[in-house]
Write a structure and sequence with these properties.
Layout: E1 3-4, H1 9-25, H2 42-51, E2 56-57, E3 63-67, H3 84-92, H4 96-101, H5 113-116, E4 121-129, E5 132-141, E6 145-154, E7 168-175, E8 181-189, E9 194-203, E10 211-219, E11 222-223, E12 228-231, E13 242-244, E14 248-252, E15 255-264, E16 269-274, E17 286-292, E18 300-306, E19 309-314, E20 326-333, E21 341-349, E22 356-359, E23 365-374, E24 377-384, E25 393-397, E26 402-403, E27 410-411, E28 418-423, E29 433-441, E30 451-456
Parallel strand pairs: 1-2
Antiparallel strand pairs: 3-7, 4-5, 5-6, 6-9, 7-10, 8-9, 10-11, 10-12, 13-15, 14-15, 15-16, 16-19, 17-20, 18-19, 20-30, 21-29, 22-23, 23-24, 24-28, 25-26, 25-29, 27-28
């Protein structure tokens, strides 16, 4: 997903100044932070570790999104007799983030922490039009991401709602500011007359104290007006957010760059780098990822560039190392990736004899050490010999289906590169297999070594 230029260089300087002031004023209450558990789409991560090249483009300053493009619907059996109070009681306790992440269609990127740490602000603002009630239940904002959770009730529906009815069409705008924003969403049918939705928004401008206007002109197949104004506040995330200003210089491709800011919230890690591209018409010259002092990679969650700035979002620190001693930024010069890689596939029978050894990248190994089966799903445990293999593209197969993981790999040991990840339930009566896909550089291609920038993190200072 492309991320957009949102404000001028002067605006970025003001944003950094704002964050510096908030960092100085904020007491250090990070001891209360619940360690986040990570989630990720494995194949995307595996490919990103090798080929991460962020495409940056300019877009309109204000945009609209018809929120029916991505609909994942789960039908939940509802009561034969519909009563609105019963639905409202259910929605008051509904785990929006759990449903959003349940089937693996959305990567976590720390989103599960919103409910685990109660980081969302409850709003419960309702608008009724055309006998349809839209309720904005809660909003999350950490200075980087916005998450809106809402529900919709068809008050006088005579029949069951379907996928065509479970959609919201809206425009988004920040009152008093015009950042470019990118959004995605998911809708879930709750019962015969109601559905819930979550909208995720990346807005790279610091918007604490601003208001988001969500102008809704259509729900399902019905036109009307359910517009709502939503206050944005970091009050619930500030106590658990840490901002560092390393101002660490580096040189790559003969040009100087600077790591200016790193912000870590319970949900997101944001890195800001200043680096001038040679030719802005050709896109970004720089690609980078980050890893902690245990060599655990952070998954990239979108980026933007322009005016000599790179602003990249990653997932938060891992649960096993929530306060890393340092992070290492791995910088590469962007190159054209066409025809530079070879894809390999390997299949093995999945038995109860472990370890099952599979080939990793460039001579490395991936060892499956255990598999646990239950009605809730399948958990695969593995260890890798090299950090570059920590997010492998592993697929499980029974006689009926090929299954990708539905949760991000979670590191489970500090002293070795050991992980676990979740898959759907397998048919245990059939022959089970495991398949791995890897990508390597072609033998004739010798990539330039990356530039490593080590950033110590002092968690004791406010």
């Amino acid at each position: 997903m492309n991320r957009d230029v949102i404000h001028s260089d002067e605006d970025l300087k003001r944003q950094d100044a704002l964050l510096r002031n908030k960092t100085q004023e904020m007491p250090d209450r990070l001891g209360n932070l619940v360690p986040p558990s990570t989630f990720q789409a494995v194949w995307d991560k595996h490919h990103q570790c090798l080929t991460q090249n962020v495409v940056r483009s300019k877009r309109k300053k204000r945009w609209s999104l018809a929120a029916c493009g991505l609909v994942m619907v789960m039908i939940v059996a509802g009561a034969a007799v519909y009563t609105s109070p019963e639905v409202r009681a259910t929605l008051a306790k509904f785990p929006f983030m759990k449903m959003l992440l349940k089937d693996g269609g959305f990567a976590d990127y720390g989103l599960s922490q919103i409910e685990k740490q109660d980081l969302a602000v409850k709003l419960n603002r309702s608008i009724t039009d055309q006998n349809i009630r839209f309720t904005l239940d809660e909003v999350f904002y950490d200075g980087i991401q916005i998450v809106l959770n809402y529900d919709v009730e068809y008050l006088n529906a005579k029949g069951k709602i379907n996928e065509k009815d479970a959609g919201v069409y809206y425009d988004l705008a920040i009152i008093g500011a015009e950042p470019d924003m990118m959004s995605t969403h998911k809708f879930t049918i709750l019962n015969d007359h109601a559905f819930i939705g979550s909208t995720l928004i990346d807005a790279y401008q610091y918007l604490d104290g601003y208001q988001l206007r969500m102008s809704i002109s259509r729900i399902g197949q019905v036109k009307g007006d359910w517009s709502v104004t939503i206050p944005l506040s970091v009050s619930k995330t500030d106590p658990h957010t840490k901002t560092f200003f390393p101002n660490k210089d580096f040189v790559i491709d003969g040009r100087k760059g600077t790591v200016e800011r790193i912000t870590m919230s319970p949900v997101t890690t944001q890195v800001v780098i200043r680096y001038e591209d040679k030719d802005k018409r050709k896109g970004a010259d720089l690609a980078f990822n980050i890893r902690d002092n245990l060599q655990t990679l952070f998954y990239s969650n979108g980026a933007l560039g322009g005016n000599g700035k790179y602003i990249d979002n990653f997932d938060p620190p891992s649960a096993i190392n929530p306060y890393p001693e340092y992070i290492e930024i791995v910088l590469n010069k962007r190159v054209q990736m066409n025809n530079l890689f070879i894809q390999h596939e390997e299949t093995a029978t999945l038995t109860n004899k472990f370890p099952i050894i599979l080939k990793g990248e460039n001579g490395g190994t991936i060892s499956i050490t255990n598999v646990e089966y239950s009605d809730d799903g399948t958990t695969l445990y593995y260890e890798v010999s090299d950090a570059k293999d920590q997010y492998p593209g592993i697929m499980l197969m029974d006689s009926k289906e090929h299954y990708n993981n539905v949760s991000q790999p979670v590191r489970i040991a500090k002293d070795r590169l050991a992980f676990k990840m979740k898959y759907p339930k397998l048919d245990m009566s059939s022959s089970l297999k495991v398949k791995i896909s890897t990508i390597e550089y072609k033998p004739a291609y010798k990539p330039e070594p990356p530039v490593l920038v080590k950033i110590p993190l002092d968690w004791s200072k406010p």
